[in-house]
User: Which sequence fits this backbone?
């Protein structure tokens, strides 16, 4: 096999990044390496300006007009941990969709240990929420039920927090964010959105979702480096009502040994990832210059091409939305009794097609899709792939299935 | 201007912020502030014990919005008060949270 590599693991992290990203990170380290927001000298100010620009660009990407409602964190996981621990407490009820990643599920397990009540909202075989069921569950009109069926009619208190996986990292199912926000708002609940797979690519429109808080990562669709992400508050949610998980130096209110309540310092204890945020700014700028809608359309077209080709292969089951349905550029496959790990290994070693195998840190999602515990092979296109790359990957899957995947 | 045992360096006005993030936001929007010669500078020790930055501005000799680099500031009276008012109005308009506006002089 030649040295061709077709990277279909953009749902794990996007690669390659636009060339300007690495250049911006190197330039930050070389030219503006002060500590952002910690001093008044020129290098600190230069670093602070980069962070300020990155904050504005990230807010624009989320449809948030006030960048000071956005705090940077190390990643989406850190942001989700803050949101889950800070927006609900013991005795509160939390409703979460059954496609949740462990970045939500594990903090929710901890919240349950501390006395919160967790209800899982069921999804269909493609990973899509039943919005009527969700509404009843959030309002407290029904219990969670078992499996896909409706739970018993009950009269319970409304949920305090709704946690939503905007785009599934397994099936690519894309939930109706505005509809879920309305459901949460009607029940008086805050909506915490896991936008790890969607921020940077999909329209979030946070200005029009006042009751929502969005957790995002910088290293996937935003095309930045790892170690970047954040938490952004809609205008109807008071960040001061959300306790931080970390407290420490912020360069502000230095005379006090109490951690500041104001944004964004409330969630930004410790030195920010300056080089990473310089890269994130560069990635977001590249997206703005290229056109976010155009990039999304191109990636979705590649995803549909991939899905269509895979569906034609005998024995291959494509998980997720049907052709033309709303989705993000992620899909997973099962190939009969073939072990997903051996298929992924053969794709990599024989063809240079890189994908992600296993449970994708989302056991609940695989249970929902009927692929637990065996897992699946996930293929997720990115902005630098062509039709030819997709066709090459399809040919590689077909060859592996024909040849068998034994070493 | 509050004094804490340090000597004021000049007769500029200052906008102090709780967080440097707000200061940088202000700097990015300062071109539409109507303030004269707005500039991000280290916060003078006499104004705050914080280690961060603030936005310095001058009191224009005549009307607000006059081009930066004009005549030297009128450190007393109406021009200073007017510049401080311009600063506050602008901060409210842009919804930039701030700690205080220190009028020039």
Assistant:
């Amino acid at each position: 096999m030649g040295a061709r590599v077709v990277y279909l693991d953009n749902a794990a992290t996007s690669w390659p990044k636009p060339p300007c990203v690495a250049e911006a990170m190197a330039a930050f380290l070389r030219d503006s390496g002060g500590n952002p927001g910690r001093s008044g000298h020129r290098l600190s100010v230069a670093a602070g300006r980069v962070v300020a620009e990155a904050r504005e660009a990230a807010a624009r990407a989320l449809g948030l007009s006030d960048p000071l409602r956005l705090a940077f964190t190390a990643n989406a996981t850190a942001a989700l941990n803050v949101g889950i621990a800070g927006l609900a407490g013991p005795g509160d009820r939390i409703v979460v969709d059954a496609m949740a990643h462990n970045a939500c599920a594990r903090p929710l397990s901890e919240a349950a240990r501390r006395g919160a009540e967790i209800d899982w909202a069921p999804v269909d075989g493609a990973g899509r929420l039943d919005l009527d069921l969700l509404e009843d569950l959030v309002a407290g009109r029904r219990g969670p039920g078992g499996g896909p069926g409706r739970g018993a009619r009950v009269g319970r208190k409304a949920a305090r927090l709704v946690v939503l996986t905007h785009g599934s990292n397994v099936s690519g199912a894309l939930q109706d964010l505005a509809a879920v926000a309305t459901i949460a708002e009607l029940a008086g609940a805050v909506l915490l959105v896991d936008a790890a797979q969607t921020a940077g690519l999909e329209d979030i429109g946070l200005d029009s979702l006042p009751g929502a808080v969005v957790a995002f990562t910088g290293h996937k669709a935003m095309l930045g480096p790892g170690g970047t992400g954040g938490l952004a508050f809609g205008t109807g949610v008071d960040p001061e009502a959300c306790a931080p998980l970390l407290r420490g130096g912020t360069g502000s209110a230095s005379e006090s040994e109490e951690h500041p309540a104001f944004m964004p310092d409330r969630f930004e204890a410790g030195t920010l990832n300056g080089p990473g945020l310089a890269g994130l700014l560069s990635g977001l700028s590249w997206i703005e210059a290229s056109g976010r809608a155009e990039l999304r359309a191109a990636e979705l077209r590649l995803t549909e091409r991939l899905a269509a080709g895979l569906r034609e292969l005998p024995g291959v089951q494509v998980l997720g939305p049907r052709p033309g349905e709303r989705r993000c550029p992620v899909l997973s496959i099962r190939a009969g009794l073939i072990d997903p790990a051996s298929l992924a290994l053969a794709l990599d070693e024989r063809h240079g097609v890189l994908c992600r195998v296993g449970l994708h840190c989302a056991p609940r999602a695989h249970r929902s899709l009927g692929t637990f515990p065996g897992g699946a092979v996930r293929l997720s296109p990115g902005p630098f792939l062509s039709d030819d790359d997709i066709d090459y990957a399809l040919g590689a899957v077909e060859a592996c299935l024909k040849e068998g995947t034994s070493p | 201007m509050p004094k804490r045992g340090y000597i004021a360096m000049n007769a500029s006005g200052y906008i102090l912020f709780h967080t440097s993030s707000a200061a940088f936001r202000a700097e990015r929007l300062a071109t539409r502030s109507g303030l004269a010669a707005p500039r991000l500078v280290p916060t003078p020790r006499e104004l705050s014990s914080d280690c961060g930055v603030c936005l310095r501005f001058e009191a224009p000799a005549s009307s607000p919005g006059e081009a930066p680099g004009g005549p030297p500031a009128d450190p007393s009276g109406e021009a200073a008060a007017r510049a401080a008012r311009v600063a506050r109005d602008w901060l409210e308009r842009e919804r930039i949270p701030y700690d205080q506006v220190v009028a020039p002089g």
